[in-house]
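Observation: inputs received (chain + 5-amino-5-deoxy-1-O-phosphono-D-mannitol).
Thought: call the complex predictor directly.
Action: predict_structure
Action Input:
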Amino acid sequence: MCGIVGYLGCRDAYPVLIKGLHRLEYRGYDSAGIALISGDNELNVYKSKGKVADLERFAESKDISGNIGIAHTRWATHGEPNDANAHPHYSQSRSLALIHNGIIENYTSLRAEMESKGFTFRSNTDTEVIVYLVEYIMQTNRVDLCTAVQLALHQVVGAYAIALISKENPDEIIAARKSSPLVVGIGEDEFFLASDATPIVEYTDRVVYLNDEEIAILRRGEALKVLNLNNVEITPEIKKLAVNLSQLEKGGFPHFMLKEIHEQPRTLQNCIRGRINMEGTNVVLSGVIDNREKFLQAKRIIIVACGTSWHAALIGEHLIEDLCRIPVEVEYASEFRYRNPVILPGDIVIAISQSGETADTLAAIELAKSKGAFIYGICNAVGSSIPRATHSGSYIHVGPEIGVASTKAFTGQVTVLSMLALSIARQKDTIDVDTFTRLVKELQDIPNKIAKVLEQAEAIRDLSKTFTYAHNFIYLGRGYNYPAALEGALKLKEISYIHAEGYPAAEMKHGPIALIDAEMPVVAIATTDSIYEKTISNIQEIKARKGKVIAIVSEGDETVHNIADYCIEVPRTAEPLTPIVASIPLQLLAYYIAVNKGRDVDQPRNLAKSVTVE
Ligand code: M6R
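Observation:
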């Protein structure tokens, strides 16, 4: 939520910052702004409601000179998206400018205190109070900017990634983080700053990920300095970025989402690579091997996640219970964190997150940690907060996911969960060799099977036209495919704004079937599995009430073809792996319906890719 960019060096800062904002726009896109210190030491702030392109139009006639600047793209939490609430925010005297990602929880009391001292605020945000406070501390305590930031942050409760510049010191950016991500890029005589590495990757591959309550001092002509809030100097750990620029471009596709859907055969190859041996007789996840005894002794596994990652967790529950015979509970991280969950010795908590920055998931991890649990992370974004907060884990290695609607991360998460379950089951001896070998072989073949589904993209596009004007959708699945139905419904609602519900197919008769009439499209996942016959009965119940059924069926299926209105075939695979292939046509269907409706597919309204606020 909210994207932060900063630049200090010899280049013109404006183009670097604007390009960076475009790369971070997926994090929030209701308003944007930029602050630059010009050659004659003016601190110019330009901001505008809307997208980064609106900011560019607004700024094009202004003075955009300067080699130092900070910029922000916003996802509003406090105060509606308008010009005044957009960041950067000036201090009272306009000699400082600040950008912020996160939420300042005690801003009302801080603001009231500042107002009682005669300060007048210009926005309704929680952010503005920080920059006012910093300036007030500088003036009253006669300290430099960095010290004032340290003192101000001692008074602030909440989450923040901030960056400040001062017209009194045009050669310095001060940045700090707590519970919101911040990365510093180190170039030749220049520094970059961003919420994640995507704006940095084309300039340098040397980065430092700040930790909570660390302050970075980016000063012209000096090395990066990192301090904590108590002024203790910390040696920054410089990491090498593995992301390349082409991964951040659309590569000829009209949207990142479509590119990411089509990437899945390759991303899943990358996910599996090196983890299954040539002969297909062994699955090795280093995190599992390193913690073998913990997994073998586990009495229970609790999986915490949000959104799409929570759907992947539900599939993980089936996989682990089915193959490893370990009881599994799946929890919304946002609920788990505010309960007083029972964590017993021998419990393992698995946290799943694409971004690795989701505030609720991070809080659930901290809570479970405080109760003594061993925490295993399954993440995509390398170097993000969750992999650093967990004891061990596995990356899904599907590359940056930019479309707000998660696609390749979902299939990557399910693939890692499949490997995790297989690896534990093999070691626990809860799976026989033949079943293990068959599942591993099927898993290796999943990328080819996805490629086959993708060959039907045109046909799915044609089919989507029939449903452009539907007002509601129901998605049904059973067993392993129930979470896939939930995920299909989520995809449709978040990018097309059509109301969609996912249900276990047999649950319909307990109430939701009242919704069925000739106007109701029902997507039913009816692949040939152990409950195929039962699912067919559920489809019959829909058809008897004149619902329009779009069925996802196994290749060569005839029975459902004779009942459903439309069928999309997917290659046959082992039952535990069907949700991976079945989710591909659901991604495509949602995508094309949203395109037909003229929606902003990559940046749907009200959403942001990385939910760093609770
Ligand atoms: O980065 P995370 O996986 O932790 O994100 C969790 C959800 O916010 C995310 O999956 C969200 O539901 C997506 N927009 C789904 O497409």
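Thought: report the result.
Final Answer: Residues 306-309, 353-355, 358, 361, 404-406, 490, 494, 607, 611 surround 5-amino-5-deoxy-1-O-phosphono-D-mannitol (CB under 6 Å). The mean pLDDT is 95.
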